[in-house]
Amino acid sequence: GLHPAPTPTPLPQGIDFFEVDPNRAGLTYDGSPTQGEADAGLVLLSFEDYKNADAAKHATAVEPALKSKYVDSGQMRLVVKPLADTAPRAAVAALCAGRQGKFWEFRSLLYQKQAEWQEGDDAAMSGYAKSLGLDQAAFDACLKDTTAQNEVDYATAFGQEIGVPTVPSFLVLKIGANGKAESEGLPGAQTLEQIEQAIQKLTAPPTPTPVAIAPE
Predict the structure, then answer these.
(1) With pLDDT > 90 as the criterion, what percentage of the chain qualifies?
(2) Distances 208 to 176, 199, 211 between C-alpha atoms, Å
(3) CA distances for 170 relative to 11, 69, 159, 160, 187, angstroms
(4) Separation CA 19–CA 197 (nearest Å)
């Protein structure tokens, strides 16, 4: 099982960090952005850094296919965990956009414009927030506030603690009837096929053991 560092807010008894928090739209109990049906049987955790080229490639090339096939059909939910190796401030900005319901749009912009922005350039982040129609004063206040920064630090520490070797990396969880999760880890950039193989491995029915019949 995964035993992360204590979350900024302790989890309710019997609740896993990746479950959808009914009191906070679009977030898990540990504050990670999530999209898809709350009761989907599969969860894909993606560990990413917004300056990482492979993470950008995943979000723009692989994720749309996963979304149309698994997320839109209610089978899988996506969860993003910043493992902010090189761009912790950009990760903070994305969480700040998330507080105004625009995490996924902001993340898309960070990836599309990856070559244009510099880590630590709050003015650039503010500009992206403006282009998405966010309340800029609230966004700028959030950038300066330690709460979002603590969430990024926590998520990064969590990824390091469970041994995520590099960004991007992925963890596919299959949620059992008892709420317990089986997982399949995918270190490094993955193709759609590789992620689908992990899904199939977790969801395949167990193969029956052939019964040996003793000879007469």
Answers:
(1) 80
(2) 19, 20, 9
(3) 23, 18, 10, 13, 6
(4) 23
